[in-house]
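Design job #97: recover the sequence.
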């Protein structure tokens, strides 16, 4: 049991119980240490059960009885099947406490498959601490503000709450123009200095991180839904999407641009649209915009405003020159007011241009619809006119022309028949080739669909494998942290060796018990055979001697001696059996005495008497207080 007690004490120390180093066995546990061990284990196993229980015994006996009853009820709720009550903790015996602590240690959470699905590492400990704190706050009843203690004011008040104000953050990048990289390297302030207030750093970082995660999630969803189906690499897929967006812009802006060679002055905004169309069709969205256009001015102004805010934050971190702070601030306010006026003017111009563009688009669509109708009507009339003019030319020589037409029709019919025969000769191989190509295309399409589904499955397995790898890395880090926190003087090999020695001793004891049982069965068989042989011998001897005893007096005496010998031997055997039964009872009683001595019955009785006296004193004191006016 000493090895079992050492393993139990080690597990209790890991659960947070302050077990002194000199305590090496459960026999040395005091009542206070037993209560603390049980409460610590309950807090680890089921926080809701152990949070309301204190691990320190109060001095009053009634309070001790209440704590013992609460601990017994908590152990029964966990599923303990043994007999447990307040006396188990206040007047404990070693076997009962060992069984109870073994049950609680087995209930402690372990790093098995079920616990491996839970998050591990420092973040898991933080999450558990947050959950425990939230549960504690939920259990605490709400109290009006005027009745709150300082602790409740910290828990339920709003003094620690801060508003969530996020500000845009500019992160440095290695790509881009040289000027931008110089600005990132020399003038861009660090991320914690970009928000105007120190309390806005965390909200800004959270907002930026959420935006980056959302963009990554959108890209993965778009790639899984459309990117894989396009059978293009990611770079080519992004380029294809840009080209498609550019083509849509061209399709939307082209109707608003004036056609080349149109007479009259161009409408307002038309040069800008024409230049924009040329830029889009020439170099894409990433090229430089036309010089002097309203669109380029508006974009340049927006870019300058964005850089102005960054430069202003960078300038604020630099030391001031000879110009005073008030002059610099006034100059910045004047420039800002001028830029705002310019921005409002440009916005008004853009709104006006947008209205004119919409009007021109509407008029252009109406004009195109009318033009298409007129062209259709004109085409039908031209065809009718050609037929009628040709018929008028053929009227003067009608008979010759009819004969020529008849010959032309016959030759055309023969040519059609010849062409039909040629078509039939060519059609068969072409149809076979078409069917073959169609079947091959269908098989390739099925193969590509199967490969796309396999790629999607591989991506899904890759993500699940990456998640599993991250979880196992967190678990590995947690196990390494726990290994480092374990005492260095305890060796796992020593524990393993002790367990193996215990198993070997149990195996040897089992073999010895089996050998003793087999020897006992053999002796019992021999005893039974000898008893039967003795009975048969006595019966034969008795019969022979009894026949001769009728005729001879000496033989009659021998028969009496034989009967007396048989009776004495039977009594001797019975006496030996009774002595063996008495020895077994003595051994059982000695074992019961040892078990009762291990229960410390006398010490528990003395403690019960002292607790009873203390309880009577407390009751007398309470009665005296109640009688006093």
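Job complete. Output follows.
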């Amino acid at each position: 049991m000493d090895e079992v007690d050492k393993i139990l004490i080690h597990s209790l120390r890991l659960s947070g119980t302050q077990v002194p180093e000199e305590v090496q066995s459960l026999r040395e546990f005091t009542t206070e240490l037993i209560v603390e061990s049980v409460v610590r284990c309950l807090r680890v196993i089921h926080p809701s059960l152990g949070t309301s229980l204190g691990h320190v015994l109060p001095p009053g006996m009634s309070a001790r009885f209440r704590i013992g009853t609460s601990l017994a009820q908590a152990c029964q709720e966990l599923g303990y099947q043994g007999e447990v009550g307040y006396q188990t903790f206040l007047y404990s015996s070693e076997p009962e406490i060992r069984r109870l602590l073994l049950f609680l240690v087995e209930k402690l959470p372990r790093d098995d498959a079920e616990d491996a699905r839970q998050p591990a590492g420092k973040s898991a400990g933080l999450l558990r601490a947050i959950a425990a704190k939230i549960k504690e706050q939920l259990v605490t009843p709400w109290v009006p503000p005027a009745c709150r203690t300082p602790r409740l004011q910290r828990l339920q008040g709003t003094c620690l709450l801060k508003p969530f104000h996020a500000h845009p953050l500019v992160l440095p990048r290695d790509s881009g123009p040289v000027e931008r990289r110089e600005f990132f390297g020399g003038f861009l302030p660090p991320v914690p200095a970009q928000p105007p207030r120190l309390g806005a750093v965390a909200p800004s970082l959270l907002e930026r991180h959420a935006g980056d995660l959302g963009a990554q999630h959108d890209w993965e969803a778009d790639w899984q839904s459309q990117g894989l189906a396009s059978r293009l690499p990611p770079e080519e897929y992004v380029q294809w999407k840009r080209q498609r967006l550019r083509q849509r812009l061209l399709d939307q802006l082209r109707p608003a641009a004036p056609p080349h060679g149109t007479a009259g002055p161009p409408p307002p905004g038309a040069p800008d649209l024409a230049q924009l169309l040329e830029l889009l069709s020439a170099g894409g969205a990433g090229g430089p915009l036309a010089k002097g256009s309203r669109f380029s001015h508006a974009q340049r102004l927006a870019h300058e405003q964005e850089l102005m805010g960054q430069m202003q934050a960078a300038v604020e971190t630099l030391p001031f020159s000879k110009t005073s702070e008030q002059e610099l601030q006034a100059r910045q306010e004047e420039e800002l007011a001028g830029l705002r006026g310019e921005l409002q003017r440009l916005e008004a111009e853009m709104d006006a241009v947008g209205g004119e563009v919409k009007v021109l688009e509407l008029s252009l669509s109406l004009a195109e619809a009318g033009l298409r109708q007129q062209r259709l009507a004109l085409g039908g009339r031209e065809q009718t006119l050609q037929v009628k003019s040709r018929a008028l030319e053929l009227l003067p020589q009608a008979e010759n022309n009819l004969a020529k037409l008849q010959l032309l029709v016959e030759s055309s019919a023969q040519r059609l028949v010849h062409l039909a025969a040629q078509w039939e000769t060519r059609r068969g191989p072409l149809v076979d080739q078409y069917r073959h190509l169609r079947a091959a295309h269908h098989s390739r399409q099925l193969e590509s669909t199967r490969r796309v589904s396999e790629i999607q499955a591989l991506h899904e397995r890759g993500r699940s494998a990456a998640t599993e790898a991250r979880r196992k890395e967190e678990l590995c880090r947690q196990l390494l942290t726990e290994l480092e926190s374990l005492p260095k003087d305890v060796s796992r090999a020593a524990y393993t060796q002790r367990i193996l020695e215990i198993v070997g001793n149990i195996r040897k004891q089992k073999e010895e018990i089996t050998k003793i049982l087999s020897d006992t069965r053999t002796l019992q068989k021999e005893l039974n055979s000898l008893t039967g042989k003795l009975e048969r011998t006595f019966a034969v001897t008795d019969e022979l001697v009894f026949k001769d005893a009728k005729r001879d007096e000496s033989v009659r005496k021998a028969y009496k001696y034989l009967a007396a010998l048989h009776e004495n031997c039977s009594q001797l055997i019975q006496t030996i059996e009774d002595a063996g039964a008495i020895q077994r009872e003595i051994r059982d009683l000695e074992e019961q005495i040892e078990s009762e001595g291990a229960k410390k019955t006398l010490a528990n009785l003395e403690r019960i008497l002292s607790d009873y006296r203390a309880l009577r004193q407390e009751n007398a004191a309470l009665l005296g207080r109640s009688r006093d006016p």
